[in-house]
Amino acid sequence: MTDHVVLGEEIAFRGAQGDWIEGFFARPLDLVSMGSVVVIHHMPGYDEATKEIALRFARHGYAALMPNLYFREAPNAAPDDAAAIARSKGGVPDERLIGDVAGARDFLLRQPHANGKSGVIGYCSGGRQAFLSGCELPFDAVVDCYGAFVVNQPPAESPLKVSAVIDRAAKLNVPVLGLFGNDDSYPGPEEVNALDAELTKLGKSHEFHRYDGAGHAFFNTAAPSYRPEVAKDAWGHIFTFFAANLEA
Question: Which of 71, 125, 155, 232 might form a disulfide with 43, Cβ 3.0–4.6 angstroms?
């Protein structure tokens, strides 16, 4: 069933170091048991396009929470402005990111209809952050949507002052779904190949799907990079993957 009655609302919850931060919480109102999904927004920030993703999960029967990762830097700013401020500071520090995602997961699992299963999905910079979260937190499933700098370091000119996180992959104990465009540069096909090889070497459960004719941000309905047919196929893989791992 994918036509659940849903509610989406802005909330406050405790993130890293107990800070109150903003989040968008979407859930079905007609279910008594549901899996939970933390949605990590793309580099452009806490915007309407990503809120629509959270609502889509709710319509498919999941409770979803998207943290505003830029809330501390720009609590009342428009998404573009908040993203610019965050980029000027080198992006979201990894340890703070882990704390905010942990807080979002804890919030979801405390809800009365939570079935105890939780997944994390991220897009763009959020793909890397979802992979990192899966290495550090007890999720049941991880989805990486074209996350760069998992294997490779960012180029010197990149505003993101983050490091590759492939060295944490040995701690990964849950299945990973990866969705990538073959025309992407960050991550390029060679980085996806390297990630695939490392997870295979470590014996980590993973499933990658790669798309010709698609570059970065092929899910983003508000961008010229949107590829409807690719996104439709990729969404099918996401819901199949979460059904296998998040339904009690």
Answer: 125
